[in-house]
Amino acid sequence: MIKVLFIASEMEPLAKTGGLADVIGVLPKKLNDIGCDVRIILPYYREVRDNLRRLKLKVRNLPREVLVSIDWLAYKGTIKETTVDGVTVYLLCNDELYDRDSLYTTPNGDYRDNDVRFGFFSLGALEIAKALNFKPDIIHCNDWQSAMAPIALKWKKHYNNDPFFYDSKIVFTIHNIAYQGIYGREILDKFGLSQSLFNTEHLEFYGRANLLKGGIITSDLVNTVSPTYAKEIRTREYGYGLDGVLRVISNEGKLAGILNGIDYDDWDPEKDKDLYFNFSFDNLRGKFQNKSKLKSVLGFDANGQKPLIGVISRLALQKGVDLVVRSLNSILDLDVDLVILGRGDKRYEKLLKDVSADYRGNFKAVIGYDESKARRIYAGCDMFLMPSRFEPCGLGQLISLRYGTIPIVRGTGGLLDTITDYTENRESGNGFIFRRFNEEDMIDSIERALSVYRNREEWLNLIRTGMQMDFSWNKSSKVYLNHYKMLLGKN
Ligand code: ADP
Helix, strand, or coil here: 389? Predict the structure, then answer.
C-alpha cells in the first residue's frame, strides 16, 4: 500500500475558496479506493472548526504536539484528527495563526504573516508525519502554501538528512500558477535557510524569494491540472515569470498535466438535496422546473421561454467577469436572462452591485459564497458562461455538463481539454468556445448557442451528450497512482 501525505490548504467540506478544495475533497478518497493510504494535513482554520460543528463530524485531540522554529521563535501546534468520507484528516492547530475570519485575505489584502502561517503549516505537516510515525512514500504538496515542505526537505539542515524522509518522493501539484507566495529575502533567515539559496537557480525571483519556484525545483514530479495548462505555463504569456523554470523541469521529464475531475456522487442532479427538483438524464422535466423556480426567485419572468445564462465564479481578473460586465448591454440585447453568483475582489463586487441595480428584470448579481445557491444555478440555467483569461482546469464547466447546462467558455487551459465546440463538431461537441478574449467573440459564441437552443430537439440532445460524459475522478486518480508508482520504481 502506498502511503501518501497530502499537504493542502483547502479541502471540501471543511475549508474552501475555490477548486483546490474540490480536488482535495475527492482525489484522496479515490486514491484510497485504488490502494493508497492517504492522510491529509489541513490548517485548523476557524472555518474548519465551524464546518466540523455544522456537519457534526467527530474530532479527536491527539496527545501530540509539534514545534517549528521560525525567526528564532518556537511555534507550537497541536493536532486534531477527523475522518471525512473515510479519509483521515489531521488538523494542525494554532489559534494565533488560523483562528481568523478568512483563509488567506482580509478585505484590504492578504494577511501580512501568510509566510509564517503557511511556512508553519508546511513544516508542521512534516512534523505531524513524524509525531504520528506515518512514514510517507509520497508527499503530495499543493500550491505555494505547501511549498516550504519540499524546500526544507531538500535545502534545510535538520530535514535534508532526516532518515525518516529518505525514501519519500515529492509530488507537487500547481492548481494555479498566478499565486506564488513571494516574500522579501528575509524569509530565508526566518526559516533557517542558507542565504546561498538566494540566487536565480534557487529561490530568487526578481529580487525577492518565491516559494512556488522553490517547490517546483525541489520536487520529484510537478504536475498541473490539465494537459493544455501544463503546456501553456511553459510560455511567457501564461507562466507568470516561472515559464523558464517550468521549461527546464519539463525538459527533464518532470512536468505532467493531469486533468481534474469532479465528485460525481456529490454533484448529482438525481440526488442533490439543494435543488428544487431532482432530475436525470432520462427525465429532464425537473431541470426545466428548476429553471422556472430559479427565475421567479431571481425576480425574472418565470414563464417565458427566454434562455437563462449563469456565471458562478471567484471574482478575480483571471475569471473575466469584467468582460461580462463590459458586454452586459450586448448580452441582454440577445434577449436572455443572466445571473452571476460571485465573491472576491471588492472592486468587482461593487461593479456588479452597481450594474445589478440598473438592470432589474433580466440581470441579477448575487454577491457572496453560497454552495446551495450555486447548485440551484448550475441546475436551473440553460447555459453556463466561463470567459476566463486563463484557466488551469476549471470545474464550473464540468459541474454544468453534469447538470445539463451547456458551457460557453473561452478556449484556454483546461476548458480546451474538456469542451469541444458544437459548431465545429456536431458529433462530439458539448459546448461553445470563443478564442479571443473580447466582446465580439464572446457574443458570437453566445449567439451560436442561442441558435441551437431555438431548435428544441437538437438542444435536448446536446444536454444529454453533456450529461453522459464522464469527468469523474475514476480516470485521473489512476493517472496519479501511476505517477506515484513510477517515482517509487514500482512500475
Ligand atoms: P477556481 O478554483 O479558480 O476558483 P474552479 O472552476 O476550478 O475555479 O472551481 C471553482 C469552484 O468554486 C466550483 O466548485 C464553483 O462551483 C465554486 N464557486 C466559485 N464561486 C462560488 C460562489 N460564489 N458560491 C459558491 N460556489 C462557488
Answer: coil
Residues 175 and 305 in one domain: no
pLDDT band at 383 (very low <50, low <70, confident <90, very high): very high
Is the pLDDT at 107 greater than 80? The verdict is no
- Whether residue 358 is predicted with pLDDT greater than 90 in this model: the reply is no
Identify whether residues 116 and 80 lie together within a single domain: yes
For the chain, the maximum distance between any two Cα atoms, rounded to a whole number of angstroms, is 69
Is the minimum distance from the CB of 389 to ligand 1 under 6 angstroms?
A: no
Q: What is the pLDDT of residues 272-295, one digit of tens each?
A: 999 999 999 999 999 999 999 999
Atom number of ligand 1 nearest to Cα 343: 23
Q: What's the N-to-C CA distance of the chain in angstroms?
A: 14
Ligand 1 centre distance from Cα of residue 435 (Å): 22
In the three-class reduction of DSSP (H, G, I as helix; E, B as strand; rest coil), residue 477 is classed as helix
Q: What is the pLDDT of residue 51?
A: 98
Report the predicted TM-score, pTM, of the whole model to 2 decimal places: 0.94
Question: What mean pLDDT do residues 414-442 have?
Answer: 97
Burial of 102 (0-12, 13-18, 19+ CB in 10 A): middle
Q: Which domain holds residue 463?
A: 285-470
Query: Both 362 and 385 in a single domain?
Result: yes
How far is C-alpha 217 from the chain's CA centre? 22
Check which CATH number belongs to the domain holding 127 and give it. 3.40.50.2000
Residue located nearest, by CA, to atom 4 of ligand 1: 18
Three-state SS for 305? coil
Amino acid at 179: Y
So what's the pLDDT on residue 303? 77
The answer, yes or no, to whether any atom of ligand 1 lies below 6 A from the CB of 313, is: yes
- Side-chain-side CA neighbours of residue 289 (13 Å): 11
How much distance in Å is there from the Cα of 135 to the middle of ligand 1? 34
Tell whether 315 is covered by a domain: yes
298-349 confidence digits (pLDDT tens): 999 887 789 999 999 999 999 999 999 999 999 999 999 999 999 999 999 9
Question: Does residue 280 belong to any structural domain of this protein?
Answer: no
Nearest atom of ligand 1 to the alpha carbon of 396: 6
Report the C-alpha gap between 332 and 248 in whole angstroms. Answer: 47
As a whole number of angstroms, the distance between CA 266 and CA 2 comes to: 26
Residue 391 CA: nearest ligand 1 atom is 3
Instruction: Give the chain's length.
Output: 491
All three cell numbers of 264, joined, read 460525481
Rounded distance, CA 256 to CA 237, Å? 19
| 17 & 105 share domain | yes
Q: How many domains does the chain have?
A: 2
Ligand 1 and 19: CB distance under 6 A: yes
Asked if 214 contacts 201 with a C-beta cutoff of 8 angstroms, the reply is no
